[in-house]
């Protein structure tokens, strides 16, 4: 669960979210190094006199500043593509849950079992008990097993919705007339908001 003034992501609960956190740190380090280099070069240009005119038409410099950004983009793109493929693959799910978004609530159906479905409404602010979170508490929570691959089928009845659980690294759009699919696996028990 996120808390006020939090600077980073929520704690990872799934292998995908752990990979996303590692990728975030990897990319942030590259951005930090580039920003430091650019700041150093700008400060150098402002504090020194440019007397070396031979560097202005050097073929080697132009080659370096053309090839170096391409290498940096590859260093960012390859881990990103690996994570995208990991998020998209579904390995023999143990459970399938169909999620339908409605204008003010979600409907869940465990499709592997007959007649096991329920609606989940948000609890109004006036009915919240002390310690409950506004706009996050619902009357019927979805219960999912831990350390099992679960396939979520997400769609909508009326308008666009977004089914998201940040600590699991999930965000899937619920679009009317379209059935989107995502996979999740929690590595530890807990109550996760989204």
TrEMBL record:
Cofactors required: Cu cation
Subcellular location(s) of the protein: Mitochondrion inner membrane
One GO MF term attached to the UniProt entry: cytochrome-c oxidase activity
PROSITE patterns documented for this protein: COX2_CUA, COX2_TM
Cofactor binding, note field: Binds a copper A center.
Alphabetical GO biological process terms: ATP synthesis coupled electron transport
Catalytic function, reaction form: 4 Fe(II)-[cytochrome c] + O2 + 8 H(+)(in) = 4 Fe(III)-[cytochrome c] + 2 H2O + 4 H(+)(out)
Domain Cytochrome oxidase subunit II transmembrane region profile: 1-91
Segments passing through the bilayer: 27-46, 66-85
Known role: Component of the cytochrome c oxidase, the last enzyme in the mitochondrial electron transport chain which drives oxidative phosphorylation. The respiratory chain contains 3 multisubunit complexes succinate dehydrogenase (complex II, CII), ubiquinol-cytochrome c oxidoreductase (cytochrome b-c1 complex, complex III, CIII) and cytochrome c oxidase (complex IV, CIV), that cooperate to transfer electrons derived from NADH and succinate to molecular oxygen, creating an electrochemical gradient over the inner membrane that drives transmembrane transport and the ATP synthase.
Alphabetical list of PANTHER family matching this protein: CYTOCHROME C OXIDASE SUBUNIT 2, CYTOCHROME C OXIDASE, SUBUNIT II
The family this protein is said to belong to: Belongs to the cytochrome c oxidase subunit 2 family.
Name assigned to this protein: Cytochrome c oxidase subunit 2
């Amino acid at each position: 669960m996120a808390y006020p003034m939090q600077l980073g992501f929520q704690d990872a609960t799934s292998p995908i979210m752990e990979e996303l956190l590692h990728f975030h740190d990897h990319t942030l380090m590259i951005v930090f190094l580039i920003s430091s280099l650019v700041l150093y070069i700008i400060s150098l240009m402002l504090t020194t006199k440019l007397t070396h005119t031979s560097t202005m038409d050097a073929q080697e410099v132009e080659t370096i500043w053309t090839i170096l950004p391409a290498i940096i983009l590859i260093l960012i793109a390859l881990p990103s593509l690996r994570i995208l493929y990991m998020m998209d693959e579904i390995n023999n799910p143990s459970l399938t849950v169909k999620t339908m978004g409605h204008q003010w609530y979600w409907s869940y159906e465990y499709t592997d079992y007959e007649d096991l479905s329920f609606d989940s409404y948000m609890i109004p602010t006036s009915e919240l008990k002390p310690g409950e979170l506004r706009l996050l508490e619902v009357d019927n929570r979805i219960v999912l097993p831990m350390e099992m691959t679960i396939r979520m089928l997400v769609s909508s009845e009326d308008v666009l919705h977004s089914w998201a659980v940040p600590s699991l690294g999930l965000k899937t759009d619920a679009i009317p007339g379209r059935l989107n699919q995502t996979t999740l696996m929690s590595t530890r028990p807990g109550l996760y908001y989204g």
